[in-house]
C-alpha cells in the first residue's frame, strides 16, 4: 500500500508533511542542541564552482553601486559615506534549495488533490513555497557514505531502507515523526573533480527507502545530490524517460519536502547524529522552489 | 566616545558583531523558547503589495515550466508526471533583508578598516554576506509602538535610548551581548494605506539609541522600516544629503548587522519579549545584502 | 466583412503581413530616401523616465565589470587595458517594442489558425518573434496630432479611418501594400508631465481605422502610445474588461504587426511623409515581443 | 604611426567612427541594393545552441503569461481573447552584439580621451551605446574563408591586410570611408561541432589588418567570431595575459565599432560583395554593448 497524506490535515492543506513538525516536536528537538555550534548546509550562490543543473541558468549576482564608483569620484551630495547595492538573477532550484509541493505532480493532480494546472506562469496559485514558510525541527544525519566506508557512494547506488536503518542504528539515532532526515552520499565531492560525471547520474535514495521514510512521517529529506533520489541515467529527471518515483511518492502523495544540492561536507566533520534543523526559505509568492541556507544547530 | 569593534576579533575579521553571538549565547537563548511556535518576520517576495524602495527594481518571479504547459499538451517522454521550475530576479535589498557589512562605509574605510574599493562590480571581495553565514541567537522584541500606545510611531519619530530602555523594562527583558534587538515602529501598516508616505520619511532609532545598543554588544538590529534608523526627509539615505549616522556607527564602526523591511505584525500578536532568533541569509558570494526570512521561535 | 490573411501565404506561414513587404516593395521604398538622415523612433531603455506599463517590471541594466573596478586596483594580468561588460533584465514589451504574432489571440486560435496553447512557458513554439526576423520597407508618417493642430490627441480620442485618410492626403502620401504606417498621437509628451494620466487611458486608432489599414495590406502599424489602439479605460488591455478589438483584428486575423511605445518627437521635427523604415527585432527564440530601435531613413 | 580619431569630430564627440557614415555615404550606399532581399546576420538569442562566451551567463527568456495559462482556465474578465508576455535576462555581449566605445580602454583613457572611470556601475556616463544610436551605411563582405578555399580559417589564423585587400579585389569591391566591413572566417561552424574549440582560440583579423582598415576610415568591422581579432590562446581577451591590440587600436584610438558573434552563413550563400548594412542597437542608457540583429539589404 502506498502512503498518502491527502486529507490528513484537511482538504485545504497546502503545507503537507511540514505539519508533522509540530511545536511539540520542535520543543523536543531543542534537546538535540549540545554545543551551540551552527553549521550551514548550503553551497555558495555564485556563477561557477558550485553545482547547477545544466538545464538551468547559473546564478548571476551584479552590483548596481559599489566602492569602485566612489573610487572613481562618485559621492552622495558631498558626504564622506558610501553605499553599495546589488541584484540577483537565479533559478529557484539553481543551488541548494527546497522544492515547494507545487514542483511536481502526476496524473494531473498535485499533493492533496489540487489540479496541476493551478501552477501557472504567474506562479503556483496552490502549493507555492510561501505555504511552507519555515521548518524548524529535529534533523537526523545519516552519513551513508561514512557508514559504508567510502568517500562517496557509487554512481548509481540506490540507498535502501535497510541501509538507512542500519546507518541510523550505527549513529545511535532513530527516525521520528516531524524529523528532517539529512542523507549524505558524498557525491558533492565528485562535482569538484568531474562536473560532467556529477550530473550524468547520481547515487541517492531508492524507492523502498522513500517509502520507509514516508511511513516514519518525516517532514523532509535533504541530500547532497541533485534530486535526493538515485539518478540512474543522464537527465532522468529533467527531460528523461524514467519517471522520478521517489519524487512522485514523497512530494505528491505524501507532501514530504525535498531539499537538494546541499553541501554536507562541513557537517560530516562533526559527530552529530541529531541537531536542530532550520530551513527559512524565501517567501517568494507562488514559487515552486526557493534557494535555501539550511542550518544545523549542533 | 564612539564605540568601535575594529580589531576586536582580529584584523582579518569579516563577521563583526555576529561574533558576540557565541555558542554559549545560543545555548542560553534556547531557554527563551516556550511554545515551539515559529513566526516568520518577512514580507512575501512579490512584484507588488510589499514595500520596495523606489530606487530599486521590484522582485520579478517567472516560471520556466508550469502546469499550464502540461495542460497544453507538453509531456516528459510520455510520462504521466509533470514538473514546474522557476526563476527570480530581485534587488538583494529589495524586500526583508540583512545588510552585509560591505554595504556601507565612510572615509574610504569599511568595518575593520578594509578599503571601500574592495567592494567591486564582481562583488564585495571583503565583508560580503557569505561572511555572516547565519545568526542564531536570542531575539528581544521591543514593540515601541505598543509601548507608546499608538498604531505606529509618527513620521519622523527618532526612538531614543531612554525609550528603548523603558520599552524593554515594560516587556520584562534586558538586552544582553549577542542579542538581536527587534524594534517595532508599526510603520509597516502605513505602506498598505499610503505607499508614498511610507517612503517619504520613516520613524526609527535615533543616534543615541544606536550608540546604546552598540554598547550592549548586540549582534544585530531588525526593524519594520526601510533603514532601521529614522528618516527625516525623503530619500535621506539613498541619494539624500543627510548622512545615515546610525548606519555609519553600527555597520562600519561596530560591525553590527541591520535587518530592514521586516513585517512584525504577526509577531506583535504574540506576547513574546524574547525568543530564539534565526537568520539564514542566502550565501551569495560577494553580495552586500541578502533577502531574508527571519524566524522567531517562541 | 472582416479582413483575414489566414492561409494567404500558406497554412504554415508564421510571418503574416510582413509578407506584404516584398523585395519589390523594398526596392520601391528606396526612392523615399532623400537626405540620408537617420532618425531613431525608440525611447531609451532605462529604469526610469521612460514609459513602462505599470504591470511590467522596469528594465534594469547592470555592469558586471567597469571602470570603477580598474580605478580601485583591478587589472587584467598587469596589462594597461581595461574592459567593461554588462547585463540587461527587461520585459520584452517594456519599452519601444514590436509584438510578435504570438502575443495575442482569441477563441483559442492565433494568426493563421495555430492553437494558442502553442505559446508556452518555454516560449512561443509558433509565431515567435524570430519569424519576423526583420522588416525593411516604406514607412508612412501620419502625424495626426499635427494634422489636427493639437500638441496631442485627447485622452480617449479614437482615430478614425477618415482622419487617417485626410491626414495622409494632407501629407501628400498614399498608403500602399507593405507599408509601415507610423501614427503620431503626441501622447508621449503626456508621460513626461503626468505618468499616471499617460497610462490611465490613451488616444489611438479606432476599429474602423484598423479595418481600413488592414485592407490596405500594410505590414505594420507603429505608434507613440502603449497599445496602438485607443484605450478608453484604465487597464482596458491588460486585465481590463474590454477586449482589444484592434489587436484582435490586426494581430490575430490579419497578421499585422503592432509596434508600441515609440518616441516620434524627433521624427515630427522633420517634414517627412515617407521614408525607409527599418525594424531589426532581436531574434529571441520563442519571444512574443522584442524591444526595438525602429529607424526612419529620411 | 598609429591612427587615431581623437578630436576629429570635436572633443565632446562620443560617436567615433560612425561619423564617417555620413548621410552622403548612406545615399551612395543605396545603390548597393539590387534584389531587395534582406538577410539577418544574427544568431538567435536562446539559452543554448548559440555561442556565448563561457564567462558570461547565457540569455534566459521567460514568459510571464502564456497560452498554457489560458488552457488551464485563466481568462481576462471572461473575454475570449488571450495575451502572452515575456522577459529577457542576458549579457549585452552575450550573443551577436556591437561593443560600445565605452567597452574598452587603456592607460586610463577611453576613446577621445574620456577617463575610463566614467564607466561606472550605474552605466557608462560617457560613450554608452546610446551614442551610436544606429548605423546605416554600405556593407562590404569579405568572405576570407571562401577566398582561401577553406570551410573556415585555421584556429589561430591572423588575417593580414594583404589578405583583406586580395579578398576585396576578388570580390570586386573596394573599401571606402564609412563602410562596415563584414569579415567571414567560417569559424561559426566550429561551434556547432566543437564548442570548446570554438572558444579556445579563434581566427580573426591581425593588427596590420586592423591598421589598414582604420586608415580606410571605416565605421565598423563585423565578424563571425567572439572578438573580431584573432585569439591565439584561451581567454586571451577576457582575463588572459595578452592585450587585445586590435581592440585597443580600433575602439579606443579610432572609435571604430566592433560587431561580434555574427552568423554569416546565410549571407555567404548570396553573391553579394556590397549591400546596405543596418545596425539598430537597443538604446540602453549607459550600456557598453547591445545585442544586435544586423541586417544586410542585398
TrEMBL record, chains A, B, C, D:
It holds the Pfam family Cyclase. This is Cyclase family protein.
Amino acid at each position: 500500500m502506498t502512503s498518502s497524506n491527502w486529507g490528513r490535515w484537511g482538504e485545504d492543506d497546502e503545507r503537507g508533511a511540514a505539519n508533522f513538525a509540530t511545536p511539540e516536536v520542535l520543543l523536543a528537538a531543542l534537546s538535540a542542541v549540545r554545543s551551540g555550534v551552527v553549521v550551514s548546509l548550503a553551497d555558495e550562490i555564485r556563477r561557477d564552482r558550485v553545482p547547477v543543473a545544466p538545464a538551468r541558468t547559473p546564478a548571476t549576482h551584479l552590483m548596481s553601486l559599489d566602492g569602485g564608483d566612489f573610487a572613481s569620484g562618485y559621492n552622495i551630495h558631498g558626504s564622506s559615506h558610501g553605499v553599495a547595492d546589488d541584484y540577483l538573477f537565479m533559478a529557484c532550484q539553481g543551488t541548494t534549495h527546497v522544492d515547494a509541493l507545487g514542483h511536481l505532480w502526476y496524473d494531473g493532480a498535485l499533493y492533496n488533490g489540487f489540479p496541476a494546472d493551478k501552477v501557472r506562469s504567474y506562479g503556483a496559485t496552490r502549493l507555492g513555497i510561501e505555504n511552507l514558510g519555515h521548518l524548524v525541527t529535529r534533523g537526523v544525519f545519516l552519513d551513508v557514505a561514512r557508514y559504508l566506508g567510502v568517500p562517496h557512494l557509487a554512481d548509481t547506488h540506490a540507498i535502501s531502507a535497510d541501509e538507512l536503518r542500519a546507518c541510523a542504528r550505527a549513529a545511535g539515532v532513530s527516525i521520528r515523526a516531524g524529523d528532517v532526515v539529512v542523507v549524505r552520499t558524498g557525491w558533492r565531492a565528485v562535482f569538484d573533480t568531474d562536473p560532467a560525471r556529477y550530473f550524468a547520474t547520481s547515487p541517492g535514495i531508492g524507492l523502498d527507502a522513500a517509502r520507509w521514510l514516508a511511513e516514519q512521517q518525516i517532514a523532509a529529506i535533504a541530500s547532497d545530490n541533485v534530486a535526493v533520489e538515485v539518478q540512474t541515467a543522464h537527465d532522468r529527471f529533467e527531460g528523461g524517460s524514467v519517471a522520478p518515483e521517489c519524487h512522485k511518492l514523497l512530494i505528491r502523495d505524501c507532501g514530504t519536502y525535498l531539499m537538494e544540492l546541499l553541501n554536507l561536507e562541513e557537517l560530516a566533520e562533526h559527530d552529530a547524529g541529531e541537531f536542530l534543523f532550520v530551513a527559512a526559505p524565501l517567501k517568494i509568492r507562488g514559487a515552486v522552489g526557493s534557494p535555501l541556507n539550511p542550518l544545523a544547530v549542533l
